């Protein structure tokens, strides 16, 4: 007999706030979203030492389908 989905991950926290997918704009519950860290790339410029440059990092979220498409999961 098939068992079905295990809701242990979602049940304890109650309803989670929706977040917007960084790539497609879809609203996804925060517990289902994949965290993505987007970095500003100054390290690829020739003549710039990457150790002396502050690279800002922005946290975003990705939906399951975008994460699968980009090979994150």
Instruction: Provide the β-strand percentage band.
Output: 15-25%
H-E order: HEEEEH
The helix-and-strand class reads alpha+beta
Shape: elongated
Task: Give the biggest sheet.
Answer: 2 strands, antiparallel
- How many DSSP E strands? 4
Average pLDDT? 82
Total domains, how many? 1
As laid out across the biggest beta sheet, the strand order is 1-2
Characterization of this structure:
The chain has one domain. The chain contains 2 helices and 4 strands; from the N terminus they run αββββα. The protein has helices at 8-11, 64-69, and strands spanning 18-20, 27-29, 34-39, 57-62. The chain has a two-stranded antiparallel ribbon with strand order 1-2. The longest helix has 6 residues, at 64-69.
Give a short summary of the structure.
The protein has two helices and four strands.
List keywords for this structure.
two-stranded antiparallel ribbon; 73 residues; alpha+beta; 14% helix; 2 helices
